[in-house]
Amino acid sequence: MKVKHVYIVLKKEMKDILRDKRTWIVTLLLPALLIPVMMYFIMGGVQSISEQKTEEIKVAVQDEGNNVQFINFLKSTGISIAESLQNPKADLEKGNIRAIIVIPYNFEKDLREGKNSNIIIQSDDSNLKSATARGIIENFIKEYANAIVRERLKAKGIDPSILEPIAIKVENIASENKMAGSFLSFIVPMLLALWTATGGMGAAIDLAAGEKERGTLEPLLTTSPTRLSIMTGKYLAVTIMAILSAAASLIGLIMAFTMNPKYFGLNGGFYMTGSVIGIMIVVSIFTALIFAALELALSTYARSFKEGQTYLTPVTFLALIPAYMIMYKMPNELPQYYFAIPIFGTISLFKELLYGMVNISHIGIFIVSSIVYIIVAIWIASLLFKQEWALFRM
């Protein structure tokens, strides 16, 4: 294998890849533009649910008696009460109202007499806005109940503060940077790992299975570069596209954070040191090297572009499964063996780094295991590239 030949093949493949507009759109332009749009709608939807305004909560009240005082209290909270509904449950299922509050006949009478009573809140928990509204209504009713308890205690000459012997004061010791990093660790590792692992798929399919289908692979094999040189050039081209895809997704994330910082709790206070950014780049490169070889091997075995797509589609799930498994884990909950498994190690390290943690042991485990995986993946790809039955099977 000659470096000169590898460079010639790499240069040729990169020209072919970048000449294809579909590659630019899917691999580079799509993640850079789609991620900000996707994050805007996702985070906007989450915020609209979690920060549901009281005046947006419309409920039906079924008063079985004449509990005017409690109904006036509900109105004072800002909750909108729907009047003259023929079938409140049907309106609740359709989403026209958020909840139904059922007040028993003797509700206020029982409370005045020092008895206990109950209220029924009907909600549609399959509707997130209804479930959130139920929680808000519950808090209002608890406030109303606490006010009654305080009045009862005062009537008996007892200080209401006896109910709260311990005053809790919460102090958050986490810095704004750490808080922002903890939030980003749920989203960024998954997206970066996914685009790094799958960003080279289009190029891998085209450079092997695609060339078979177009009939351009056989003439290439008759040229002076050895098959190993040709395979290496193609492998480096796929790796570069995977890294560019990861970079494009990162640019998309930065654009999303810049345009809507309030959605992510950043408030301009999040930053990463140069060493952390450098480690993330190294981790991305190692991940790209592993999956580029795997994708090229599968593409080499495929007989056509369509068959190559079929073989490489499961690679996406290889990246998605660990992403969802790790998403809700804290850095201190990650077992050490995760860092020795492809994608698991990538996402785990990204999560630690976003929390501001640089664990040399975990980085070492990731690098050593990645080198082993890269060697094995390249060996498999080169083995298939040398076999006539794999290259030209019918």
UniProtKB/TrEMBL annotation:
Keyword match Secreted: no
Annotated membrane topology: Multi-pass membrane protein
Chief localisation class: membrane
Coiled coil: none
Pfam families: ABC2_membrane_3 (PF12698)
Subcellular location: Membrane
Residue intervals of the ABC-2 type transporter transmembrane domain: 21-381
GO cellular component: membrane
Annotated GO MF terms: ABC-type transporter activity
UniProt-listed InterPro entries: ABC2_TM
Sequence intervals crossing the membrane: 24-43, 183-205, 235-257, 269-291, 311-330, 363-385
UniProtKB keywords: Membrane, Transmembrane, Transmembrane helix
Official protein name in the record: Sodium ABC transporter permease
Source organism (scientific name): Carboxydothermus pertinax
